[in-house]
Amino acid sequence: MSKKIILITGGAGFLGCNLTRKLLEEGHKVIVLDDLSTGRLQNLIDFEKNENFEFIKHDICDPIDVRADWIFNFACPASPPKYQKDPIQTIKTSVWGSFNLLELARKYGSRILHTSTSEVYGDPTVHPQIETYRGNVNPIGIRACYDEGKRCAETLFFDYKRKFDLDIKVVRIFNTYGPYMDPDDGRVISNFVVRALKGLPLEVYGDGKQTRSFCYVDDMIKALLLMINSNSDVIGPINIGNPGEFSINELVKVLESLFAKKLSINYKNLPQDDPMKRKPDITLARELLGWEPKINLNEGLENSVKYFRSVISEYNADPFSCDSCLQ
Ligand SMILES: NC(=O)c1ccc[n+]([C@@H]2O[C@H](COP(=O)([O-])OP(=O)(O)OC[C@H]3O[C@@H](n4cnc5c(N)ncnc54)[C@H](O)[C@@H]3O)[C@@H](O)[C@H]2O)c1
What we know:
Elements: E1 5-9, H1 14-25, E2 29-34, E3 53-57, E4 70-73, H2 80-85, H3 87-108, E5 111-117, H4 144-164, E6 168-173, E7 176-177, H5 188-197, E8 202-205, E9 211-212, E10 215-216, H6 217-228, E11 238-240, E12 246-247, H7 248-259, E13 265-268, H8 283-289, H9 297-311
Parallel strand pairs: 1-2, 1-4, 2-3, 4-5, 5-6, 6-11, 7-10, 8-13
Antiparallel strand pairs: 9-12
Helix pairs in contact: 1-6, 3-4, 5-9
The site of nicotinamide-adenine-dinucleotide has 29 residues, from helix 1, helix 3 and strand 5.
């Protein structure tokens, strides 16, 4: 494959830094642009001396002028506590940030891939979720800054395609986990594993019967690479995720067998608009990209536990305080 100049916005975050590693291994030049609001420079430390790597601290809500062949837009906080902390900035990032990147892609004729989310389906009434399902989102709830922001970003991407024939790609990512997740980010897997490692009770919201699908990061990165390399008529939106469906209580059981002990649980109230079911229909990804996830929950969790074990010592005593992020 020819060497490309690749801009990764949000590249200091979980998915972005995993993709950066892979693209540098393939010999591309990678420019990471990140405002470090939820990402960490620590995630990029391995690439510091790589001559193909560059880091720019920048908020995508401000215009940018960087020439790139490909743009991956990951910039946006992804965990509910983080995106709800400054909901207006979250919407601005999704919508205004996307606008700035689309203008950039237009200026240089770049291919641009946008990471949308399963949250565009809201609390779904169709199960499993297929791309043609239009979703069930509460537009004024506390999750709307993220869900509606991402929905509007998809609209913008498709309007740029229709109006300027821009080379766009849109993927809808379902819950993904693995090494380089922020131990402090408040998503269920990082939360459970870090608390289990610290000997703290796991926090289960509601009765734990709500279901989620969990995709291991290596599978996700493979899908993103297949998508960016696909023909220009493969636009999306395409669901990318693992169709294995687990209730939160079942996730606890898998972790108990990994830790070989009973884990104590604190039950808490279900947050507003928390979806009850989540499972991607990945027929389209199978057909168009020849992709399906290969790594099962047990194997993925084992790798994740190893990673979290190695990094939580870097954090302050309270792993759940945002101040403990190494930024
Ligand atoms: N991880 C998942 O399970 C998941 C699921 C669905 C969608 N996604 C999407 O994938 C993308 C990456 O998610 P992640 O899990 O790596 O999250 P993350 O929070 O680890 O990474 C997001 C990165 O974007 C940066 N960022 C946020 N706002 C920015 C701004 N205005 N300007 C520049 N940088 C900014 C953050 O500092 C961070 O480095 C997000 O857009 C998210 O919505 C992720």
